[in-house]
Amino acid sequence: MAVLAVGTTLLVGRARTPCVGHPWGVTATASSRGPALSETPLPPLDGTAKPWPGTHEVLGGVRLHVRRTPGPGGVRVVYVHGLGGSSTNWTDLAALLAPFAGGVALDLPGFGFSEPREGFDFSLAAHAAVVADALGDLADGPVHLVGNSMGGAIALLVAARRPELVRTLTLISPAMPDLRPHPGRLSDPRMALAYLPLVGGRIRRQLAAMGARERARQVIALCYADPGAFPEHRLEELTEEHGARASLAWAGPAMGRTTFGILRAWLARGPASLWNVAPLVRAPSLVVWGEQDRVISVRRAVRTARSLPDARLLVLPRTGHVAQMEQPVTVAQAVLGMWEGVDAGTW
């Protein structure tokens, strides 16, 4: 693998050049081939557009809340959000890709407005099984699968275990194992104490009593490289969503149990390790990372792309953990470039 700088965007693609010298273990070379940014015109981005309408549907035998994006050829792209996120995380990217692919953004069980079924264990494997079963109902053939953070790890599991379901794979800051014990990775540092004996109950009550707007601001402060760039109307939408979820009895436990599910996946060894799952993926893959990601370090980016048999890496400067929200146009150009390259046999 090698790296190619295009403007201020770092593109990393497969090449025979040795990977040494770069802070992330790659070397600059003009012969590198990174992911092509599509030159196909995208629709103008309407940053004021409301989230796509949401409905509840039974997919794969599970009732999920989803947001559909109209587009050609039926459902061809499926979006999977991260921990604490929801289908609204894909509003802008889905709009930009709508002329090229109809889409579905899922609320995973316990998140957004998808109530988890009784007995759901909130492991990454369980979430991946729900997504895989849903894909079977969403399309007659393989889809373009896009995941962010936890959703990226889930999409990775789906692509590895159910290759017939996935045409291409896009991972945006996927939650690959990153066990750095740093409170700055939490939207609220008190969360690190929330499940400790004696003090945990009090901390959880304090967090539960926090206002919806403050919770929304904390999430954006953690996930955005420049929180001030988050539009005020989007903050209002996120505040409204957080307020609505506060009344759902299952929302808090789902967050806590899924967090532990991620930690268990990160501690797994042998075939269950995400690093050992990645080489099983056969779909052409695009890995996108924000250079200023505080949640999952960009230092995981090159290893992630190397682990996938047919992957290229796009690293975006001045970008944090949710590149599809911070840099939707560039991400859309990269995703569309991959689709075009795969269709043309040039990826």
From TrEMBL:
- Annotated coiled-coil positions are none
Domain named AB hydrolase-1: which ranges?
Answer: 77-328
Q: Which GO terms describe its cellular component?
A: membrane
Q: Which GO terms describe its molecular function?
A: hydrolase activity
Q: What keywords is this UniProt entry annotated with?
A: Hydrolase
Query: Which InterPro entries does this entry report, sorted A to Z?
Result: AB_hydrolase_1, AB_hydrolase_fold, AB_hydrolase_sf
PANTHER family given in the database record: AB HYDROLASE SUPERFAMILY PROTEIN YCLE, MONOACYLGLYCEROL LIPASE
From the Swiss-Prot or TrEMBL record, give the protein name.
Alpha/beta fold hydrolase
Organism for this UniProt entry: Amycolatopsis suaedae
